[in-house]
Amino acid sequence: MAAIEMRNIVKEYGDGFKAVNDVSIDIADGEFMILVGPSGCGKSTLLRMIVGLEDITGGDMLIGGNRVNEKAPRDRNLSMVFQNYALYPHLSVFENIAFPLRLKRGIPEEEVRQRVEEAAATLELTEHLQRKPANLSGGQRQRVAMGRAIVRQADAFLFDEPLSNLDAKLRGQMRTEISRMQRRMGTTTVYVTHDQTEAMTLGDRVAVLRKGVLQQVASPRELYEQP
Ligand code: ADP
Ligand code: ADP
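Above: inputs. Below: predicted complex with adenosine-5'-diphosphate.
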């Protein structure tokens, strides 16, 4: 059974414009799937429909075999990392990472601490737990945003161009870290980018979109060897 299954997904806006047009993709459990294509091809819209931030016009979205079209984002048990990290400036790194756990309530403080420390260790943030976001580098802030995503032990991680605001050197480092983190955790991941290098180095498979239409789904190797 696919972890995430998109069946003939359509997103149509009021004027009849189809930002996503009849897209079907199966994402296997533990798979790292890239959504790639030029600006405006519909990749963010598709990702937002997986998370539940955007209504689906047509088709079925299945997560773990269950249809989620009408489910609110908080009932989908997915974790999204945005491009602008949206950290809370007045909270420490520890509290920023702990935030999703505090929302759930009823999690014992000891478990919160343990899970935050685990996430921080995975992302090499242990020494920075008491600092405020303003006192971190761009890369560290990005890692805090990721910490917040992984602390929840969601069924899947969703990334919307998480590295596009970073400089080239940091982007390279973060690529390596994301790849390592995902392999270590084995969590199903959907990652939106317009960056060819990210698409070719991070993903198990790459879904190529153009003007809302799915062109192909292939491994980086298959794409590379294509004429
Ligand atoms: P990408 O993430 O690939 O850059 P998007 O998913 O953001 O593309 O957008 C896909 C297309 O849908 C674009 O042409 C965009 O202008 C259009 N679009 C996005 N939101 C709306 C909206 N609220 N109303 C009309 N068109 C929209
Ligand atoms: P991103 O930073 O992901 O590229 P955009 O700048 O494409 O986001 O879109 C920002 C917001 O504007 C989104 O809520 C999107 O739905 C909306 N939007 C994008 N394109 C259009 C459009 N053609 N008409 C109306 N709203 C749009």
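The chain is about 35% helix and 25% strand.
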